Amino acid sequence: MRVVFWGSPDFAVTVLESVLASAHAVVAVVTQPPRPSGRGRRQRPTPVAQLAESEGIEVLAPKRPRGLEFLRAVEALGTEVFLVAAYGAILPPEVLSLPPRGALNVHASLLPAYRGAAPVTRAILDGRRDTGVTIMRMEEGLDTGPICLQEAIPIRSEDTAGTLTARLAGLGGRLAVEALDRLALGTLVETPQDDASASYAAKVATGEAAIDWGRSAAEIERAVRAFDPWPGAWTTWRGERIKVLGAGVVPAEGHGPVEPGTVAAVEPAPVVVAGGDAVRLDHVQPAGGRRMGGADWARGRRVEPGERLGAG
Fold first, then answer.
1. What pTM value is reported for the model?
2. Which one of 13, 133, 255, 270 is least enclosed by Cβ atoms within 10 Å?
């Protein structure tokens, strides 16, 4: 089938690579426009745009996917179906109605759970044991369309949002090709979602990644993984912001009844008391610095037991 692919980040690149290796023809990609990136703030095309250009595929990068000129450009492609994977904007009804076989979306959750922008981060934060990928038929609602294919994978204890997203992207690519194959054969079965069981995965805000030491150590450890690689769980020490890039849960016994956020020990690694148990800082990144071991940071900055993180 002739496919127009909609996507922008690395997750979408993996899905696109799977489609390019299939029997289906990607006639164009629609992606977000270039954004300033890096220290020089140079305008850089999205990862999907870079892959498409290297493959000689036409790239459309509108500021907004709407308007008569854009609609005519897409219509002229003669596409049969849209495949959408982390495009980054809602497709209006007049766009969804263009392809004769409709639009399919690759969503990184087991719908109807975690509809919305940040399903991977929210699943880790909530301590879910599994998640997965859903291929759904797109409609006007936000991730509300009928389910075409769905497959679960476990969330590993060491998974970060980055590692889990990468595994889901591989699964999404395989399921996307299978859905396109079935659609071409007329064997794709669509099952309505149970709206009563739906949950919503809101977009992540940077402020959410501030560590609340009053929460349990298990919740904080999940937050460290959930906000890796972006925006990075963070706290403050002596007024300086530091990111916590790796953490573990340790028993709080022996550290006394101290206020959450208090440094209980610095050797062999810094340990910080939480609202329940304590958190071992395995890897941190000081502001403007590089990633380093928590013990190296504590020794180099002369962190003292009894100091508090996140105070002031």
1. 0.95
2. 255
Q: Alpha-carbon distance 3 to 36, whole Å?
A: 29
pLDDT confidence of residue 58: 98
Parallel, antiparallel or unpaired: strands 81-85 and 2-7: parallel
Residues 6+ apart with CB under 8 A from 229: 160, 161, 162
Half-sphere exposure of 94 (CA within 13 A, CB side): 10
pLDDT tens-digit map of 64-106: 999 999 999 999 999 999 999 999 999 999 999 999 999 999 9
| Contact call for residues 46 and 8 (beta carbons, < 8 A) | yes
Residue 195: half-sphere exposure toward Cβ, Cα within 13 Å: 4
- Helices of type H across the chain: 10-20, 47-54, 68-75, 93-96, 119-125, 161-185, 217-226, 294-301
Q: Is 311 in a helix, a strand, or coil?
A: coil
